[in-house]
Amino acid sequence: MATKSEALKWLANGHDITPIQVNFDNNGHASKKPFLSYATDKVDKLWVLSNWKRTYAIGLVLSGEDYTVFDFDSMDVLEAFKKEHPVIMSGVHEKSVTGRGIHVYFQNNEGLTQIIGIIHGLDIKASKNNYVVVDPETDLDEVKELPEELWTFYQKNKSNGYKAPLSNDLNDYTIHELDMIVDGFGAEGTRNANMSLLVWTLFTLGFSKRQVSVVVELANERSGLTDSEIEKTITTSWRKWTNGS
């Protein structure tokens, strides 16, 4: 993850950043969640000095006018793409937080918007108020203009993927946790963990504690968790959300 010094360096270089919580499952797949409602809760030097934890990763908040990021799921996807578009190698490269994916940065001087799954294994990260988790050592001073060939690729293929909404907090088109509102919290043994995931997702989306309680109670109609289980999870999560601890 990133130290306070690394976060401060990114701030000093004029970047808009936000702390990202990263969790890994048993297969090494990463789940990334912003700790703050980053479109409105801006991180400054005092916040980093007072609150930054070593468990946070640095999320580079995109403005829609600064960078576009070609987000490859794996080196194999990049290698296949490179055969048709060798110019991809002219961008600034970094490994993703999982160590498997590859980010390639260019200047977003053509007004690209975010497209999820423009081809299999490749997302375009570009929209206003979206983010990409960066390697603290990445140097963006040498980022080049988007090559014409990649602009043509984007225009030709953008209808294949999902155009992400210009949301305050979303970095993906699909939020699977919201399916729980209709379908419940899943199989026994997973319900408490899934309920907690829904709670944090709703806080990330800007829901108040009362609004979260109403939505979770609705989802629980198909699951049967006790009121005390729900209240404890929401109260504990809300305390952490508001106190930053």
What are its keywords?
globular; 34% helix; 245 residues; single chain; six-stranded antiparallel sheet; alpha+beta; four-stranded antiparallel sheet
* Head-to-tail CA distance between termini: 17 Å
Alpha plus pi helix count: 8
List low-pLDDT spans: 165-173
Give the count of structural domains.
2
Shape: globular
The amount of helix comes to 25-40%
Beta content comes to: 15-25%
Tell me the structural class: alpha+beta
Order of helices and strands: HEEHEEHEEEEEHEHHHH
- In total, the number of strands is 10
Compute the average pLDDT: 87
Largest sheet: 6 strands, antiparallel
Give Rg in angstroms.
19 Å
Spatial arrangement of strands, main beta sheet: 5-6-4-8-7-10
Q: Please, could you describe this protein's structure?
A:
- There is one protein chain.
- By secondary structure, this protein is α+β, with helices and mostly antiparallel strands.
- The chain folds into two domains: 4-163, no CATH class; 176-243, no CATH class.
- Strand 5 and strand 6 form a beta hairpin.
- The strands form two sheets. Strands 5-6-4-8-7-10 form a six-stranded antiparallel sheet. The protein has a four-stranded antiparallel sheet with strand order 2-1-3-9.
- The chain is 34% helix and 21% strand.
- The model is unreliable at 165-173 (pLDDT under 50).
